[in-house]
Amino acid sequence: MIKSVQWVLFLSVLVAFAACNAPPVPLDDISIEKTFVPEQCVRAVKVGDYVRYHYIGTFPDGKKFDSSYDRGSTYNVYVGKKQLIEGMDKALVGMCVNERSLVKIPPQLAYGKKGYGDLIPPDSILHFDVLLLDVWNPEDGVQIKTYHTPSVCTRKVEVSDYVRYHYNGTLLDGTLFDSSHTRMRTYDTYVGIGWLIAGMDQGLLGMCVGERRFITMPPSLGYGENGDGEHHDTYLIDIPGQASLVFDVVLLDLHNPRDGITVTNQIVPDSCTRKSVSGDFIRYHYNGSLLDGTFFDSSYSRNHTYDTYVGLGYVIAGMDQGLIGICVGEKRTITIPPHLAYGEEGTGSKIPGSAVLVFDVHIIDFHNPSDITEITVTKKAEDCEKKTKKGDFVKYHYNASLMDGTAIDSTYNYGKTYNIVLGANQVVPGMETGLMDMCVGEKRHLIIPPHLAYGERGVTGEVPGSAVLVFDVELISVEEGLPEGYMFIWNEDVSPDLFSEMDKDNNKLVEPSEFTDYIMRQVNEGKGRLAPGFDPYRIIDNMFFNQDRNGDGKITEAEFKLKADESASHDEL
Ligand SMILES: *[C@@H]1O[C@H](CO)[C@@H](O)[C@H](O)[C@H]1NC(C)=O
Ligand SMILES: *[C@@H]1O[C@H](CO)[C@@H](O)[C@H](O)[C@H]1NC(C)=O
Ligand SMILES: *[C@@H]1O[C@H](CO)[C@@H](O)[C@H](O)[C@H]1NC(C)=O
Ligand SMILES: *[C@@H]1O[C@H](CO)[C@@H](O)[C@H](O)[C@H]1NC(C)=O
Ligand SMILES: [Ca+2]
Ligand SMILES: [Ca+2]
């Protein structure tokens, strides 16, 4: 054990002796040992390039005479322009960024016989441990390398456009100096009008939303000779002087302040007789997304249409415009620049400032508060003697749906007609109108606005609020009503002896049963008529009640006369 240690020591002394005393091995030329070669070399240094590099200068014995690290900044210089010792000018050519080499330079390619002041003795061989960090050429412009192209690109960035993008900014050696991600928001700016460093102003032009590219620029188009230390609070590191910059950019949004809305992907139904105008009330479904496809909201998620007036400022300006001139059933994509949407502020957590919004809309229905029931006769009656009027008792079939075709109800489901007295508020006002002046056998198509149907509230589970209704009706039968205000009329002259005819048991009182029997008999014999469509017994009870002035359940002859003399009410005999 001991022996071998001595052996090692002895050897090392020998080597040291040789290094000190033997004359240096004469070098004709520089020698380069590459100690690190990066996987990729985008560009090798050429004569005339400008480089930034770190180095440690030592003598062959290891003694350090200089180091850029000690000065805390890279050495920046043109290559091949005799600004460096000849050996260095040679050694740097062909180097790649991030490459590290040990360069040995003989004195004739360094400081020669003279040496350099006190620092470099005459005839010194110099060793430089060099790490190349940056290379550019004064001829360089912006270099753009797109590495992801979106499948659709309807528009490319032009001068004076406003863009939102994410980026990572690195130096050429990969050192990250800034990223929009660290601020967790996009970088939002005008392009091409000097809001950005020149390299970005140029490098963003022609970009599509969704595109990803590397934008590489020389310092003249970046932060120049002095770099940038002013953004200390936002940047991860200061940008050194004379540094090339590489921005990895993904474009998320793009518009021009002069933009209006755009309408695309229109699918207009074949039959469109009416287009929305300002002041209409629209019910529609929508999917909302940002320009890069990020979804932010949908009416479908609420299972409810979005309902609003259009053109009156109830919605964002772009939507107010985009919903004009639209048909029921139409689908369209409305793209809205931020100044017609939520502006520079954005809204909520999902719509960033200056965001362009894309709405895919589907119009379910619309109406105007001044609309009346729209009646279209779809089948005329063969012969029509009488047309329906107020008070008539009508029987009809209907199929009801919403404007988008959703079925709501149909009499065919119940296998029987729907029966009403017209004008008696038994159906919604729009339906009353729709069934007037109609002939038996006639068919009509009715479009009823919500204010003449179920209003803003609708019918839970059946009719949505503010829905326009569509009815196809067929009139099956009509029973003519009595003149307005009458519930019973005589077809013939009234018997002069009415009271005694009613008072069957002759006790000088008309009891309810006597009254009812009598009226029903007149109706059955065709001498009198009750208003159709109502419960006859309720009408008769009502008549009795009117006649029985003192409310004792019996009508006396005096009560009978008194009532007959008045003739103010119609429900009398
Ligand atoms: C920037 O870096 C982040 C985080 O490493 C990465 O998710 C993103 O894709 C990079 N590129 C861009 C253009 O944001
Ligand atoms: C919407 O309707 C679907 C299916 O009927 C249901 O699963 C969902 O919970 C509803 N969403 C809301 C917000 O009501
Ligand atoms: C909204 O998105 C849903 C789900 O992708 C889709 O079914 C619906 O048709 C879309 N609506 C419109 C108006 O584009
Ligand atoms: C209602 O729909 C049924 C079945 O589609 C049809 O046979 C009938 O004619 C329709 N009625 C009206 C009044 O349109
Ligand atoms: Ca009696
Ligand atoms: Ca009485």
TrEMBL record:
Q: Where does the protein principally reside? A: endoplasmic reticulum
Superkingdom per UniProt: Eukaryota
Q: Which residues form the signal peptide?
A: 1-20
Q: Does the keyword RNA-binding apply?
A: no
Per UniProt, the keywords (alphabetical) are: Calcium, Endoplasmic reticulum, Glycoprotein, Isomerase, Metal-binding, Repeat, Rotamase, Signal
Q: Where is the EF-hand domain?
A: 490-525, 535-570
The record's section on SUPFAM superfamilies has: EF-hand (SSF47473), FKBP-like (SSF54534)
| Catalysed conversion reaction | [protein]-peptidylproline (omega=180) = [protein]-peptidylproline (omega=0)
Reported EC number(s) for this entry are 5.2.1.8
InterPro entries per record: EF-hand-dom_pair (IPR011992), EF_Hand_1_Ca_BS (IPR018247), EF_hand_dom (IPR002048), FKBP-like_isomerase (IPR051989), PPIase_dom_sf (IPR046357), PPIase_FKBP_dom (IPR001179)
The entry lists its GO molecular-function terms as: calcium ion binding; peptidyl-prolyl cis-trans isomerase activity
Task: Name all PPIase FKBP-type domain ranges.
Answer: 48-136, 160-255, 279-367, 391-479
Q: Where in the cell is it found?
A: Endoplasmic reticulum
The keyword Endoplasmic reticulum appears for this protein:
yes
- One Pfam match: FKBP_C
GO cellular component term of the entry, any: endoplasmic reticulum
Q: What class of enzyme is it?
A: isomerase
The protein's role, per its UniProt record: PPIases accelerate the folding of proteins during protein synthesis.
The name of this protein is peptidylprolyl isomerase
Source organism per entry reads Takifugu rubripes (Japanese pufferfish)
